[in-house]
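pasting input
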Amino acid sequence: MESTIEGNRSFRFNDNFKEWIVFGICLICTFLFLFSAYEKIIDHSRFAKGLSKVSIISSYANLIAWAIPILEILISLLLIIPKTHRWGLYGFAGLMTLFTAYILSMLLWKEKLPCHCNLIIEKLSWEQHLWFNLVFIGLSIAAVKLSKPITKI
Amino acid sequence: MNNFQKLALGLSVGAMAIGFSAFKSSENANTKLDRAIFFNKSGVQSNIASDYVYQPDGDCLAASTACSAEWNYTGTLTEGAHPNGSKYSTTDSQGAWDGN
């Protein structure tokens, strides 16, 4: 009986710990996206101007310059609301993957690199920026895995 | 921690993010008048003002050389001008100036 209780306690502790880890990652991701979104909206003209210099997306620069911060805000809201945080994590990982693919393509094809990074990462080089994004993608995927409900066989 | 507490904490972090971003933005706006990005002509980081020029639409291409740095200046900036103040950035951002 004791061992069962101890086993249960241990199991509950692990569950709580996982929940805290997932919640912490959600908060970090929310902070990053809201910080970034606010700056993209406040300094919208600079952001749109930079995007217009990229040949592939230049014709949609203004649309993208609004769509990205709006998406970041929506994903942040999903991350904040406990019942939708998994959707938020999927969204976060998806958008960060898109950003990373964009950086990677720019690095590979030696296009112009108009950096509109937010202030946290403005000092990073493009390679460091790539690693920064990969770490956040990894964190969000880890959080999705940890937040998966345990299925009993 | 229940869902309501999580939501409250999440909203607090969101407010902090926006507040911090606003603070940094206003800090930058206040320094705009006497600090600007100058592009490195030589591609080698230095503290020599004549190595750096002002170009409003300048950009950095992918490369691992020194490309731009923030310098303090006084007066009105014109294209091609060199900084007349001290260097603010400790390290140059990497790239290759597209004006070279």
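fyi The longest helix of chain B spans residues 3-31.
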